[in-house]
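Structure first, sequence second, as always.
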């Protein structure tokens, strides 16, 4: 089968190779992958040559496809079922653990940028009937991350105000979940054109952080000085203090991304003084995934896909993500 491998650092180093078909265990299934979406984490893994893990490595965590073979003891699925991979293959429910962290596709384990994968039946969920393979491939990381932050940890409810940074996959799903729950979303971006697009998706207020660098003060003005109920924080150290300033007393900041880099110091004063819950968010469990899919299906919510690339043009998809001009998700179609 054809598969892309990371062998060293850089997008140009991605190698399209032929791998032997893996043997099938009793509780495993073979999935013909139809689509894979990209996350910032996947881009970093390619750029940094596997992030210090095993090489060669097949990248990407988010895959969607059709089961073409099942092991003798498989009970959850059958041949022909349309399925989506879980980011963490061994996080079924409960709290995240060190063992869970060693079960991430495209990291500790080979990922899904291949024509076929063999995984345990427990590491899959059913693709909602109304979604395409491309749409389903957007859900395992970005959507579930936003869901855990806003719904599971944040308990978003009607009337809440949520601050979303940028227009990448996590933030756009966050906007859709805010609308779904009757919450009001403030969205930031450096592009007025993208801000017009989020308005069309239901954003309550928008801020161009390039022309308004003190956006945290603007958020306070928009909320009558109170601040937002929760923040989906994807910037990291470069934006975290501003997010804390923009958060109300007793509010929550879901720390998700590091788009501004890994360095820098953060003053904890606002966390202490305002009793803010600063919660690290790393995707979610399979139970959370299944709960999220029920909500998506009930509302017939469609993921927002910016661009789709064919399998043989996969490196171009990473370059697209690297340029940070996308709105929603970038998908590779097989």
């Amino acid at each position: 089968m054809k598969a892309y491998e990371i062998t060293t650092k850089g997008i140009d180093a991605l190698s399209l190779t032929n791998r032997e078909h893996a043997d099938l265990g009793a509780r495993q299934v073979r999935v013909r992958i139809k689509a894979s979406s990209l996350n910032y984490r996947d881009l970093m893994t390619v750029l940094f040559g596997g992030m210090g893990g095993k090489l060669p490595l097949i990248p990407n965590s988010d895959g969607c496809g059709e089961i073409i073979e099942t092991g003798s003891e498989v009970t959850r699925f059958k041949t022909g079922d349309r399925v989506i991979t879980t980011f963490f293959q061994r996080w079924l429910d409960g709290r995240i653990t060190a063992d869970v962290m060693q079960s991430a596709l495209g990291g500790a384990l080979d990922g899904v940028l291949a024509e076929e994968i063999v995984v345990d039946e427990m590491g899959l969920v059913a693709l909602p009937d109304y979604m395409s393979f491309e749409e389903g491939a957007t859900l395992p990381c970005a959507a579930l991350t936003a869901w855990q932050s806003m719904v599971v940890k944040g308990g978003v409810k009607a009337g809440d105000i949520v601050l979303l940074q940028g227009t990448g996959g996590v933030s756009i799903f966050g906007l859709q979940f805010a609308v779904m729950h009757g919450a009001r979303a403030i969205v930031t971006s450096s592009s007025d054109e993208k801000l017009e697009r989020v308005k069309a998706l239901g954003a309550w207020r928008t801020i161009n952080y390039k022309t308004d660098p003190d956006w945290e003060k603007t958020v306070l003005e928009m909320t009558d000085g109170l601040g937002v109920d929760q923040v989906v924080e994807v910037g990291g150290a470069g934006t975290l203090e501003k997010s804390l300033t923009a958060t109300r007393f007793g509010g929550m900041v879901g720390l998700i991304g590091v788009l501004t880099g890994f360095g820098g110091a953060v003053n904890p004063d606002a966390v202490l003084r305002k009793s803010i819950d600063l919660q690290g968010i790393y995707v979610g469990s399979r139970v959370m995934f299944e709960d999220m899919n029920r909500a998506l299906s009930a509302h017939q919510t469609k993921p927002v896909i910016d661009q789709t690339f064919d399998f043989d043009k996969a490196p171009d998809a990473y370059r697209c993500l690297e340029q940070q001009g996308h709105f929603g998700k970038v998908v590779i179609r097989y």
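Margin note: The mean pLDDT is 96.
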